[in-house]
Amino acid sequence: MASPVNAIGFLLSILSCALFGNWLPFLSVVLFVFAPLPNSIFGRYTTNDVLEDAVSNVADIGRFLTSLILVSAFALPLMLLHVGTIEFFAAVMSISGGLLIYITMMTYSWLFTRERIEY
Question: Which compartment or compartments is the protein found in (predicted)?
Fold first, then answer.
């Protein structure tokens, strides 16, 4: 189910560039693709211990970097639209395609990293 959603996301992203003859919206897709990397790299330093009160600063840095990249990925097409570099529908297609790509990547990572309950 997630693979066609990912394909639709990439299709929207490529069409947002190809239909309007401007490849700058593709930069936001690159940001959406690299957005989960800080969480996956720095997320290994978290603990699931209930009794431990200390918060992992390294995991917080990963969450901060991920949110920074995501905000930049949303803001880049909007900024390009405001400046007049891209069309309105190119910005909408770029944001929606990148969002579909990011959601698909997060769904895959959630499905393959969750704890398996064995009885």
Answer: Membrane
What does the DSSP assignment read for 57-95? HHHHHHHHHHHHHHHHHHHHHHHHHHHTSS-HHHHHHHH
> When comparing pLDDT for 9 and 118, which is higher?
9
In a domain, 100, yes or no: yes
Chain segment 27-76, per-residue pLDDT in tens:
998 998 898 898 888 877 666 665 555 566 777 888 899 999 999 999 99
Give the total number of structural domains in the chain: 1
Residue 110: the pLDDT is: 79
- The structure tokens listed for 107 are 């769904």
Is 79 part of a structural domain of the chain?
Answer: yes
Give me the domain span that covers residue 18: 2-45+54-110
* Residue 74 falls inside a structural domain: yes
Judge whether 9 and 73 are in contact, CB under 8 Å.
Answer: no
34, part of any domain: yes
